[in-house]
Amino acid sequence: MSTGWIVLGVIVVLALFAFNAYNRLVALSQRVGQAFADIDVQLKQRHDLIPNLVETVKGYASHERGTLDDVIKARNSAMSAQGPAQVSAAENQLSGALGRLIALSEAYPDLKANANFQQLASELSDLENKIAASRRFFNNAVQEYNTGIQQLPAALFAGMFGFTRKDFFDLGASRTEVEAAPQVKF
């Protein structure tokens, strides 16, 4: 009779560990989803700002068609990307194209002095800072989640409950391209 109670007690303790681990992993997974949604909101705002910026630059630098087309193509690609890995890659291409577009203002003093361009560039700079902060928050949430599924006792149950590693929002292989200073050719 006492052996039955011991077995039942062990089963109850294991069930409590499983429930606790599951609930903790669900909370961490929700945090990752919310953090990615925050990034998505900032990126949508940037996508909405880009056509106005391109139109402003067009009036001053219409012969820079290649740069303007690159920005529009990169924006369209970024808007259709799905999931952290694709979004990250597409947004990195867009950041590079935007860097080249902003660099055009150095070659066109009238554009640089244009109030509309200054306002749009300021908004873009502000959005870039917000996106960077959102990326840091997302990557922190992913790190906590990935650590959570690898720690005991959750590691015993994570795979069984369908919890798998999540990808960071990283610059990856294009880091050197994004960090490189844009070149202005006259």
Folded structure, characterized:
By secondary structure, this protein is mostly helical. The chain has a single domain, classed as de novo design (two linked rop proteins) (Up-down Bundle), CATH 1.20.1440.20. The protein has seven helices and no strands. Helix 1 packs antiparallel against helix 5 and helix 1 crosses helix 6. The C terminus is likely disordered.
The biggest beta sheet is recorded as:
none
Q: Kindly provide the name of the CATH class.
A: Mainly Alpha
Structural class comes to mainly alpha
Could you spell the SSE succession in H and E letters? HHHHHHH
CATH topology description:
de novo design (two linked rop proteins)
Assembly state: single chain
Helix content: over 70%
**Coarse shape:** rod-shaped
Number of helical regions = 7
Low confidence ranges: 177-186
CATH architecture group name: Up-down Bundle
Give the tally of β-strands: 0
Question: What's the end-to-end separation, in Å?
Answer: 90 Å
Count of distinct structural domains: 1
Protein name: LemA protein
Family: Belongs to the LemA family.
InterPro entries: LemA-like_dom_sf (IPR023353), MamQ_LemA (IPR007156)
Keywords: Membrane, Transmembrane, Transmembrane helix
